[in-house]
Design goal:
289 residues, alpha/beta, 4-stranded mixed sheet, two-stranded parallel ribbon, 6 strands, 50% helix, globular, disordered N terminus, binds zinc ion
Length: 289
């Protein structure tokens, strides 16, 4: 299940642009997203707003450690900057780091803000620490730090998708969670740094799926999302689909028994990726910078 090294080695080749300018033709149907056919209710130009990061004082010991980590490394600021460089918001949207119990990260429709809990980062730090077992203690700690940064980025992008769907009244139907995961994947496919984050994200879903299957997750995570292996395989599938040449080693086949993405799914992944890219690019076309 541990494949970080192989992922990392595969990254060198990839240079992708996923959102960017795209033809604003009708998008094909994808789960959760339908292209707008009517005039949007909000002005169809990139708004002047941006994700704006703030930190509330942490209320727990683990929370304090994560607050310090996030602030020192400007983790949320970097994630916000990546999104802000690509997508304009109609107004500033707060991205607030805060203590919560149970751990969570979510778009809060009531306060129109994305909340990111320190304890959510701590939960993933624990999962990653168990999986990063190679190298010196310093190397393992560093790998875990990087994984936490990766998950924080993908989480922010996922929650941003929920925010965008609401504030731009994007016509999302069906599984909005799939749409949100797809936008996160697209934002993570933009460059090699963020592709590394996507790999941490996949690791995180793998770890959660394992715990979930063992029934060991309990109420550790306040999350309305499916924690099943489907999300894990989606994330692998879409990263593979974004660049099948670079990531061909993920495909399980007779020639590659160490792969983990079943061939029957893998053949559909480039198409799935193209479809979600077209759908989101069309939906966001008026708001892309
Ligand atoms: Zn969600």
């Amino acid at each position: 299940m541990r494949f970080h090294r192989r992922w990392a080695a595969a990254l060198a080749a990839a240079a992708l642009l996923t959102l960017g300018a795209s033809s604003a033709t009708a998008a094909p149907a994808v789960p959760g997203v339908t292209a707008a056919s009517a005039v949007p209710a909000v002005p169809a130009v990139p708004g002047p707003g941006a994700l704006v990061v703030s930190y509330e004082p942490a209320q727990t010991e683990v929370g304090l450690a994560e607050q310090q980590f996030l602030q020192e490394n400007q983790v949320l600021e970097s994630a916000a900057a990546h999104a802000n460089a690509l997508i304009g918001l109609p107004r500033d949207i707060p991205l607030v780091a805060v203590s919560c119990d149970p751990p969570n990260a979510y778009w809060d429709s009531e306060s129109q803000a994305i909340l990111f809990c320190y304890e959510y980062a701590a939960l993933f730090r624990g999962l990653f620490a168990e999986r990063n077992t190679e190298g010196s203690p310093a190397e393992r700690a560093r790998a875990t730090d990087e994984d936490v940064i990766g998950v924080a980025n993908s989480t922010v992008f996922h929650e941003l998708a929920h925010a965008l769907i609401e504030v731009y009244e994007l016509p999302a139907t069906g599984r909005e969670e799939d749409s949100a995961d797809q936008l996160a994947t697209l934002l993570l496919s933009e460059d090699s740094l963020h592709q590394e984050y996507a790999i941490s994200d996949i690791e995180a879903w793998g770890a959660l799926a394992e715990l979930s299957e063992q029934g060991a997750l309990g109420d550790k995570l306040a999350d309305e999302h499916a924690l099943d292996s489907q999300r894990y395989y989606n994330a692998i599938c879409w990263l593979y689909g974004s660049d099948p040449k670079t990531y061909d080693f993920v495909v399980l086949s007779e020639a590659n028994p160490e792969g983990f993405l079943p061939e029957a799914r893998a053949v559909r992944c480039p198409g799935e990726y193209t479809q979600m890219q077209k759908a989101w690019s069309t939906l966001l076309a008026p708001y892309l910078k």
